[in-house]
Amino acid sequence: MGKLGDMADKAKQLAKGHPDQADKGVAGAERAVDRRTGDRYDAQTDRAADAARRSYRDGGSAGH
């Protein structure tokens, strides 16, 4: 696996160990994108945030 994939795996493992902190980061990123785009992509950012949360909360393989 390449460096980016390795970093993503490490980030996912850290998020699994600290899900509350990861939730804050996901929510902050979602808010920032919504703010920058004037909420034009709100439905997409909601889905992306949910998929991110599932990837470390449920142990799922979101996006795979």
TrEMBL record:
What are the Basic and acidic residues biased-composition ranges? 1-23, 31-57
User: What name goes with this protein?
Assistant: Kanamycin biosynthetic protein
Q: Which organism is it from?
A: Streptomyces daghestanicus
Q: Where is this region: Disordered?
A: 1-64
